[in-house]
UniProtKB/TrEMBL annotation:
<feature type="domain" description="Amino acid transporter transmembrane">
    <location>
        <begin position="79"/>
        <end position="476"/>
    </location>
</feature>
<feature type="transmembrane region" description="Helical">
    <location>
        <begin position="460"/>
        <end position="483"/>
    </location>
</feature>
<feature type="transmembrane region" description="Helical">
    <location>
        <begin position="172"/>
        <end position="197"/>
    </location>
</feature>
<feature type="transmembrane region" description="Helical">
    <location>
        <begin position="397"/>
        <end position="418"/>
    </location>
</feature>
<feature type="transmembrane region" description="Helical">
    <location>
        <begin position="355"/>
        <end position="377"/>
    </location>
</feature>
<protein>
    <submittedName>
        <fullName>Proton-coupled amino acid transporter 4</fullName>
    </submittedName>
</protein>
<dbReference type="Pfam" id="PF01490">
    <property type="entry name" value="Aa_trans"/>
</dbReference>
<feature type="transmembrane region" description="Helical">
    <location>
        <begin position="317"/>
        <end position="335"/>
    </location>
</feature>
<dbReference type="InterPro" id="IPR013057">
    <property type="entry name" value="AA_transpt_TM"/>
</dbReference>
<keyword id="KW-0812">Transmembrane</keyword>
<dbReference type="GO" id="GO:0005774">
    <property type="term" value="C:vacuolar membrane"/>
</dbReference>
<feature type="transmembrane region" description="Helical">
    <location>
        <begin position="424"/>
        <end position="448"/>
    </location>
</feature>
<keyword id="KW-1133">Transmembrane helix</keyword>
<feature type="transmembrane region" description="Helical">
    <location>
        <begin position="277"/>
        <end position="296"/>
    </location>
</feature>
<keyword id="KW-0472">Membrane</keyword>
<feature type="transmembrane region" description="Helical">
    <location>
        <begin position="209"/>
        <end position="228"/>
    </location>
</feature>
<feature type="transmembrane region" description="Helical">
    <location>
        <begin position="240"/>
        <end position="257"/>
    </location>
</feature>
């Protein structure tokens, strides 16, 4: 969930709240039409019933209206399907992939394959649902683009009567969840950078350096990265991050299959279910890209191509799932239960290629920090900018400095990678990537219908159960792991 797709997401954070309120209202300008011949024979109760049926059919046929949001969408530089696929791969193949061997350790070698596919199917489906609901709401509201918070609010505004009063609150909930997710992710990135630097530093220094010292030293470089206010200058930095991450992963794969042996007798094939919550937390953190799917869809030349069995979303996530399974399988098979929170930390630091991996990943994550943190900055600045109209630039820099400082202090307080990833994956991504999209679909199709045997409702109940399972047990397991680190 990193790289240049964050740039597109940030463009939609700035959408004003008034845009959401501008829903399409179909009102008759002329006088009431005369009663038809059949209506004169209907009782008042039957007439009211007929009005309800007509209203339901009009809502149900919203997608068949004359308004085509995709034809009306005007973009200066629309992205092709291949460009969108590339951005989706960049967003999904983030630093979380380095924790997949650790996840396989919690599930078992064979069990991890099937559970990774399960998580991938559910996460991809929830992203699919979010885009599908957005396409329905485009026509209901006569809008051509929406961000994730806008989809959430619009669904409530156009849903049942009881939901309308909670529309703005639901929008705020999504914004807060996005902020918590990206802020926590940036704290994890700080720990990853410091850990990789520490590995190399301890090899060349006579005395060992404490990890928290490295984290605090990173404060100034991270503030400098956050002070870049123009996204135009952050995009090339993201490309540098992709280059270094590719180098690091390439050498890591070489160590997994080119050196030493893969010993099947030293791994567990199926771990007990009590250990699965950590697997789900880490895998959801690694695989979720719910924050970028709407910006990607909004920028597409052919948005309908995002969906479908062979659509861009399914193609991209299929490739991502394959890479995640491959690294998790080989990493756990190579190091067994000795695998660490990030697979690159298992590499032999006596070898120069292993040290290159540490440095490359540290640089890649540092270069990604600015784009990740930009989302948090945009959300926070939109909340406070009206209070600093006299000196907005100075206030902006001060806000960025304070936010980075809090982020680094949080990393120093919890300098662990896997448990920290687990908390974000279990708590933030379970809410944002699983539970919220399922709820949005329920509200969006409230008046349209849930299909034969109400299959949409039953399907979303299963998603809710899985989401709450990951939320409760995953968060509990991750928090206990952090407590154990202190003890």
């Amino acid at each position: 969930m990193n790289n240049s797709t964050i740039l597109m997401y940030s463009l939609y954070i700035k959408t004003s709240e008034s845009d959401i309120a501008n829903v399409h209202k179909q009102e008759s300008n002329g006088s009431a039409s005369p009663q038809q011949e059949l209506e004169t024979f209907l009782s008042p109760e039957e007439r009211n019933k007929e009005k309800i049926v007509k209203k339901y059919e009009m809502t149900k046929d919203a997608e068949a209206a004359d308004f085509d949001p995709f034809a009306e969408r005007k973009l200066d530089n629309p992205t092709s399907n291949m460009d969108t696929l590339t951005h989706l791969l960049k967003a999904s193949l983030g630093t979380g992939i380095l924790a997949m061997p650790k996840a396989f350790k919690s599930s078992g070698l064979i069990n991890g394959i099937f559970l990774t596919i399960l998580v991938a199917v559910i996460c991809t489906h929830c992203a699919y649902v979010l885009i599908k609901c957005a396409h329905v709401l485009y026509k209901k509201t006569r809008r051509t683009t929406m961000s994730y918070p806008e989809v959430a609010e619009s669904a409530m505004q156009n849903g049942p009567q009881w939901a309308k009063r909670y529309a703005y609150g639901f929008r705020i909930f999504i914004l807060v969840s996005l902020f918590m997710t990206y802020f926590g992710t940036c704290s994890v990135y700080t720990v990853i950078i410091a850990t990789n630097i520490l590995k190399v530093a301890n090899h060349y220094l006579s005395a060992e350096v404490d990890l928290r010292v490295i984290i605090l030293i990173l404060l100034l470089p991270l503030i400098c990265m956050a002070w870049i206010r123009n996204l135009k200058y952050l995009a090339p930095v993201s490309m540098i991050a992709n280059l270094f991450m590719g180098v690091g992963l390439g050498i890591t794969f070489y160590y997994l299959v080119g050196t030493g042996g893969l010993e099947f007798d030293k791994v567990s094939y199926i771990k007990p279910p009590v250990e699965w919550p950590e697997f789900f937390s880490l895998t959801i953190f690694a695989m979720e890209a719910i924050g970028v799917v709407m910006p990607l869809e909004n920028a597409m030349k052919t948005p309908k191509s995002m969906l479908g069995f062979c659509g861009v979303l399914n193609k991209g996530m299929s490739g991502v799932t394959l890479v995640y399974i491959l690294l998790g399988f080989l990493g756990y098979l190579r190091y067994g239960d000795d695998v660490k929170d990030s697979i690159n930390l298992n590499l032999d630091q006596e070898n120069v290629p292993a040290q290159i991996v540490q440095v490359a990943i540290a640089i890649a994550v540092y270069c990604t920090f600015g784009l990740q943190f930009f989302v948090c900055i945009e959300i926070m600045w939109n909340c406070i900018k009206d209070k600093f109209t006299k000196h907005p630039v100075m206030a902006d820099y001060a806000m960025r400095t304070v936010m980075v400082t809090v982020c680094v202090l949080l990393a120093a307080a919890v300098p662990t990678i896997a448990p920290f990833m687990g908390v974000i994956g279990a708590f933030c991504f379970s809410l944002l990537g699983l539970i919220a999209p399922a709820f949005i679909e329920v509200i969006t199709y409230w008046n349209i219908g849930y299909g034969r045997f109400h299959y949409l409702a039953w399907k979303n109940i299963l998603v809710f159960i899985f989401g709450f399972f990951a939320l409760i047990f995953g968060t509990k397991d991750a928090v206990f792991s952090i407590i154990q680190e202190y003890q």
